[in-house]
Backbone:
């Protein structure tokens, strides 16, 4: 049964779409406000809901030893639309979950459009939502429009924090020279739907690597406006030239690490390796892994074509850069993601200070559930802190230090410590075996503790099928 109260969600990215889905399944009438196509952004290329801008990867899908894989699994168990669409549009990517971007966004939009209690309003919200909107989720992401960002700054009483987020280039697969490059996943590890040969690898010898690093450092880069010059980057998404400037070996221990790969074309091991990951279901597009960049477009073409195998590369999209805005959530939000100074407003997604597609969608999932439960008069507790959902939420709303708050991916450092389990012989794992054993214990504990929280969703009606 549809509840007469209405929920307004501002922003049709992954977080906003997930929030709309969760609330609508619980019987809430939802209006999802998306400003595109009336107001575009510097990073989006389509008008689609849930467009993936920076990458097509949700990272590791291993829910037994990986924090992000665990978050995938918890979201699946909570009926996530984002995870359902990702699974349905998976492309080979080793142990990672990567998706066909267009198929993914189309699946999200189709599912929301089919819900009778969701209205998709293509309009820009240019200021603070009117008081008649009693329940609001702001999920405008890293590209919040200037008028709304100003309104948020006014109501929070503090300036929004900001950093730059960079976009990696995409190459047409048929322009890659496979007499120099080769297909292989690191350590030949096959992931879901993969074969162990899910990446294209381009080798560099020591001289080629040195020349490449020098070119990155000297290349002509995008110039920032004066007010943008001191905006910090997120450490997990540094432009490749910024990494190169940190030292000549930095890239060899980062995105260009050569470990676990064997060049079938030459006997000697490569000094460094550039990897490309499939970007669409057809396998016609590949993105250059870790190559977020602020190089000017002409420089990208010139420098990236010095990589063996990419000398004739044709680019479907060159890299770019955009400003990312987020609020100081530990200071501003309560444990249900409500703005303390104005509880009718909730926040979700990257604007809360999470980093990553899945993390953003996860906070959207929670915001949608919290809003729906409040409208229904049900007190939905936060997920247990030992779950990935709970650990991420707790970090945002109290676990992080407000004075130096920065965006965060989900990781086991956000969880309470867990005891390394005993092996079959009654002993605890030691040495190299200790780390995977402990990661496994984190995951097993989280999924056990999530079970009791999921019963609250069934009480609220949020797990009912549409």
Residues:
């Amino acid at each position: 049964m549809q509840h007469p109260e209405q929920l307004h969600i501002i922003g049709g990215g992954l977080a906003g779409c997930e929030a709309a889905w969760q609330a609508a399944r619980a019987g809430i009438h939802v209006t999802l406000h998306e400003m595109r196509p009336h107001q575009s952004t510097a990073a989006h290329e389509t008008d689609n809901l849930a467009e993936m801008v920076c990458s097509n990867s949700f990272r590791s899908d291993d829910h037994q030893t990986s924090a992000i894989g665990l978050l995938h699994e918890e979201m699946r168990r909570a009926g996530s639309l984002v995870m359902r669409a990702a699974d349905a549009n998976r492309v080979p990517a080793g142990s990672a979950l990567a998706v066909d971007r267009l198929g993914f966004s189309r699946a999200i939009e189709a599912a929301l459009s089919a819900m009778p209690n969701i209205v998709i309003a293509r309009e820009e919200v240019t200021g603070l939502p009117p008081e008649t909107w009693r329940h609001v989720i702001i999920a405008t992401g890293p590209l919040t429009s200037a008028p709304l960002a100003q309104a948020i700054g006014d109501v929070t009483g503090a300036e929004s924090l900001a950093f730059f987020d960079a976009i990696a280039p995409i190459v047409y697969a048929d322009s890659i020279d496979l007499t120099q490059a080769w297909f292989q996943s690191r350590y030949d590890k096959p992931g879901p739907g993969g074969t162990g040969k899910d990446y294209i690898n381009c080798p560099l010898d020591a001289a080629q690597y040195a020349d490449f690093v020098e070119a990155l450092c000297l290349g002509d880069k995008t110039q920032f406006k004066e007010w943008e010059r001191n905006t910090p980057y997120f450490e997990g998404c540094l432009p490749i030239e910024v990494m190169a400037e940190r030292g000549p070996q930095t890239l060899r221990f980062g995105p260009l690490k050569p470990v676990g790969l064997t060049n079938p074309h030459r006997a000697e091991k490569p000094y460094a390796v550039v990897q490309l990951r499939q970007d669409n279901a057809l396998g016609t597009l590949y993105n250059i892994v870790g190559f977020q960049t602020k190089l000017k477009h002409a420089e990208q073409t010139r420098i990236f074509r010095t990589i063996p195998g990419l000398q004739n590369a044709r680019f479907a999209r060159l890299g770019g850069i955009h400003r990312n805005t987020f609020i100081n959530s530990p200071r501003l939000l309560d444990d249900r993601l409500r703005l303390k100074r104005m509880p009718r407003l909730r926040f979700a997604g990257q604007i809360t200070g999470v980093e990553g597609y899945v993390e953003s969608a996860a906070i959207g999932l929670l915001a949608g559930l919290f809003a729906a439960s409040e409208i229904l008069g049900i007190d939905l507790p936060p997920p247990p802190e030992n779950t990935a959902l709970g650990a991420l939420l707790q970090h945002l709303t109290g676990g992080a230090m407000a004075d130096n708050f920065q965006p965060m991916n989900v990781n086991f450092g956000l969880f309470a410590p867990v005891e390394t389990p005993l092996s079959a012989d009654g002993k605890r794992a030691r040495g190299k075996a200790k780390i995977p054993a402990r990661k496994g214990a984190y995951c097993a504990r989280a999924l056990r503790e999530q079970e009791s929280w999921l019963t609250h969703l069934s009480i609220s009606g949020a797990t009912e099928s549409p």
Notes: Residues 166-323 form a domain with the Elongation Factor Tu (Ef-tu); domain 3 fold (CATH 2.40.30.260). The first strand starts at residue 3 and ends at 10. The chain has two domains: 3-160+327-460, 166-323.
